[in-house]
Amino acid sequence: MSDLHDLCKFPVRPIDSGYVKQLNHYLTSGIPATYTVEEAYKVLNNIEDDDENSESVSNTTPLHLICQHVPKDLSSEELSIVEQMITTLFEYGAGWCFIDVNNNTPGCILIERGFHNSSLYQLILDAGVRAELLLRKVSEYDMEFIDEDDVPNQEDEVVPELVTELTKEQEEIEVVQKSNKPEIDDAPDAPSQNQDSYLNTKLEYVDNALITKDRKDGVMMSWESDLMKLGCDSLFKGSIIEENEIDSEINILNIGFGMGIIDTMIQAENPTKHYICEAHPDVLKKLRDDGWYEKSNVVILEGRWQDQLDDLLTKGIFFNGIYYDTFSEHYSDMLDLFDFVVGLLKPYGIFSFFNGLGADRQIIYEVYKKLVDIDLQNYGLSVTYTDVEVPKETLQYKDKSVWDDVKRSYWSCPVYYHPEAKFIEL
Ligand SMILES: C[S@@+](CC[C@H](N)C(=O)[O-])C[C@H]1O[C@@H](n2cnc3c(N)ncnc32)[C@H](O)[C@@H]1O
Question: pLDDT tens for residues 168-193?
Answer without folding.
Answer: 333 332 333 333 333 455 788 899 89
